[in-house]
UniProtKB/TrEMBL annotation:
Residues 1-17 form the signal peptide. Residues 76-159 form the M23ase beta-sheet core domain. One of its GO terms (molecular function) is metalloendopeptidase activity. This is Peptidase family M23. It comes from Micromonospora echinospora. Pfam families: Peptidase_M23. Keywords: Signal. InterPro entries: Cell_wall_metabolism_enzyme, Dup_hybrid_motif, M23ase_b-sheet_dom. It comes from the Bacteria.
Length: 459
């Protein structure tokens, strides 16, 4: 059987791996023993799971050297989000008989990572650029697999090598067999180990404020304690005060215009660096974050105690929240599908039917009691709302980043903000969604409105 599989894979030009239980002999995915060239420095690869999650890394006899099977220490692995270990271009996203649904990312300078046995078709496509920590799929058991897990590999100039995470070698090197190949690493089967993910998003960046009544002139948000920086931002207005929330190294900070933008740590920690939402309801400020795939809620009325809402399995890179008639609504992406949960239904996370969306861009607003959700599908912004059964319609806004999205309503007019080529663009429902360059630079954006003035916060 092995020779047949090998011949099929040789014809395909790609070897696909198998997995998770030490009873199935396997062939590894993406490597033939090609001559190594001078690869660039090793990227700062991170464990391919949300910030703070603990995963078991293991191999087995005959698996193939350097191949790693990963299972979640927190319970069932099936459906858990898989994140990019490092930024790069999607080299392949699709189906292979051995690997099932899988993704290969090209990080440049000779480095690639492979992610096999996903539960469903990946939400990314070949040629798409993804950021470190961006969701690229969910754990499954498709292809030649005997149980839910992620089969993972790092390759250097086309040859498998020991995986490193957060600057530390994984220790998974040998499968104990001299008969697998093309590589052979002597020694017994590498012992399993548990690793906690530090895949907490991009580095914090300076936050800039720009207002529509000032020609979108971008000014740095800074206070007595220094500049306000973050890898994710959320903005709200409360009683005429502008409030900006940011995430830095898993911690949530709050800065307000009436305190000179003094940036204060809320006490919220251990959260994803790429997902943040905030709303105000009856004078109380609420902040929503993702911790290990679970949505948490903290409020100014409970001393910012970060409580698990019970909403689970969500992307650690997309989150939106709105309030309608005093009810808090939270929108998340689970396996490329938008889900809605609200405080009046005990945070039961329901499938909206909006599917095939980026797991790193999500926005929501309410207009006259109607809930609107904005997503990115293949670089195009789509709009769905509660009054049309969440039918996801193409707005015509195209060529946008799949990692940045914001929306506000001003006097009943809907405004959507996107990033194209590092510049924030604005489109409005009363101009046929014509997407205009604001000139504001940034890779992430949030927005609020104050007295009819539109205000952007970009980082």
């Amino acid at each position: 059987m092995r020779s047949i599989v090998a011949r099929v894979l040789a014809v395909a030009g790609l070897a696909l791996a198998v997995v998770a239980v030490p009873v199935v002999p396997a062939v590894g995915p993406a490597v033939l023993g090609t001559a190594a060239q001078a690869a660039g420095p090793r990227p700062d690869f991170q464990l391919p799971f949300p910030c703070g999650e603990s995963w078991r890394l293991a191999t087995y006899y005959g698996h193939d050297d350097y191949d790693i099977d990963m299972t979640w220490n927190g319970g069932a692995s099936s459906g858990r989000p898989i994140l990019a270990s490092y930024s790069g271009t999607v080299a392949f996203a699709g189906w292979g008989n051995g690997g099932g649904w899988y993704v290969v990312l090209d990080h440049g300078a000779g480095w690639r990572t492979s992610y096999l046995h996903m539960i469903e078709a990946p939400p990314v496509r070949a040629g798409q650029w993804v950021a470190t920590g961006q969701q690229i799929g969910r754990v499954g058991s498709t292809g030649n697999s005997t149980g839910p897990h992620l089969h993972y590999e790092q390759t250097r100039d086309g040859v498998k090598t020991e995986a490193w995470f957060n600057g530390v070698p994984s220790g998974i090197t040998s499968d104990g067999s001299p008969h697998t190949g093309p590589l052979y690493v002597s020694g017994p089967v590498s012992a399993p180990r548990s690793v906690v993910s530090n895949n907490c998003g991009a580095a914090a960046r300076q936050v800039w404020e720009a207002a529509s009544n000032a020609g979108w002139r971008a000014l740095p948000v800074s206070g007595a304690a220094g500049p306000v920086v973050g890898s994710a931002t959320a903005a709200i207005e409360l009683n005429g005060v502008k409030i900006v929330y940011t995430v830095q190294d898993g911690r949530v900070y709050e800065a307000a215009s009436n305190t000179g933008w003094r940036n204060l740590w809320t006490g919220i920690s251990g959260v994803s660096n790429s997902a943040l939402a905030a709303i105000a309801v009856d004078g109380v400020k609420y902040v929503y974050t993702v911790v290990g795939g679970w949505v948490h809620e903290a409020s100014s009325a409970n001393g910012w105690r970060n409580l698990n809402s019970g909403i689970s399995g969500v992307s650690g890179s997309a989150l939106a929240a709105i309030a309608v008639n005093g009810v808090k609504y939270v929108y998340t992406v689970v396996g490329g599908v938008v889900h809605e949960a609200h405080s009046a239904n005990g945070w039961r996370n329901l499938n909206s039917g909006i599917s095939g969306v980026s797991g790193s861009a999500l926005a929501a607003i309410a207009v006259n009691g109607v809930k609107y959700v904005y997503t990115v599908v293949g670089g195009v912004v789509h709009e769905a709302h509660s009054a049309n059964g969440w039918r996801n319609l193409n707005s015509g806004i195209s060529g946008v980043s799949g990692s940045a999205l914001a929306a506000i309503s001003v006097n009943g007019v809907k405004h959507v903000y996107t990033v194209i080529g590092g510049a924030v663009h604005e489109a409005a429902s009363d101009n046929g969604w014509r997407n205009l360059n604001s000139g504001v630079r940034g890779s992430t954006v949030s927005a609020l409105t104050l007295n009819g003035v539109k205000i952007l916060y970009a980082a």
